């Protein structure tokens, strides 16, 4: 079993920065891909960002490009989402996900490419 624990969420004002961290444990083989998704009440969970195992391939949804950055520490098995210039529309519960399928190379935004999920961390941005 794999455990994913997110941290770093909280309350911020528009324009502020927050850093989310996801720590993975429980398997000897590191996840091939790790990703961040977010969800607001009553809406589907949406893709935000993803990184392959060594951080050489990263993806960001268009709405956060230029503001967010994703990074991966393969030795520590952690995934970080640096969120700058936060907007009220970034308010959501952010979920960390981990997967071991090579299908994520071509479709990192697909939720079914991820086998394990964290419980989520709330990010609230006030305008």
Notes on the structure:
The protein is mainly β. The relative contact order is 0.31. The protein contains no helices and eleven strands. The chain is globular.
Question: What labels would you give this structure?
Answer:
127 residues; mainly beta; four-stranded antiparallel sheet; 49% strand; globular
As a percent range, the share of helical residues equals under 10%
What string, H for helix and E for strand, traces the elements in order? EEEEEEEEEEE
The share of residues in extended strands comes to: over 45%
How confident overall, as mean pLDDT?
95
- Structural class by helix and strand composition: mainly beta
Would you identify the regions where 5 or more consecutive residues have pLDDT less than 50? none
Tell me the major beta sheet: 7 strands, mixed
Radius of gyration: 13 Å
List the helices and strands and how they pair.
Layout: E1 3-7, E2 10-13, E3 18-25, E4 33-39, E5 46-52, E6 58-60, E7 68-73, E8 78-83, E9 92-99, E10 116-117, E11 121-126
Parallel strand pairs: 2-11
Antiparallel strand pairs: 1-3, 3-8, 4-5, 4-9, 5-6, 7-8, 9-10, 9-11
In a nutshell, what does this entry contain?
The chain has 127 residues and is mainly beta. 0% of the residues lie in helices and 49% in strands. It contains no helices and eleven strands.
